[in-house]
Design brief:
Elements lengths: L12 H4 L8 H10 L4 H12 L4 H4 L1 H28 L2
Keywords: Membrane, Transmembrane, Transmembrane helix
């Protein structure tokens, strides 16, 4: 059954009217940093950089092909290095 607005609430006073949140050290530092000149522009550029699409998201197949050839080149270099080391003896 729904409570009508005329009925008093059964919640304690501290829950009905809570005290304002305390400012932490992080809140104070954030306020000081945002007050610096150019902070808003830097924050917008940071958000844009964080929201960018990565290369593997934009060109997934091209990155897979390039990664395949890169892995092949690294494996070939390792095999050739091992061959050269064992060929010295």
């Amino acid at each position: 059954m729904l409570r009508t607005p005329q009925q008093p609430s059964s919640l304690p006073e501290w829950m009905l009217n809570p005290p304002p949140p305390r400012r932490t050290v992080g809140d104070r530092l954030a306020g000081a940093v945002t007050a610096l000149p150019g902070a808003a522009r830097l924050r917008r550029r940071w958000w844009a950089w964080q929201g960018r699409r990565r290369l593997h998201q934009r060109y997934p197949n091209a990155v897979k092909v390039a990664t395949f050839f890169l892995c092949f080149a690294v494996a070939l270099a390792l095999v050739l290095a091992a061959n050269a080391l064992f060929g010295m003896a």
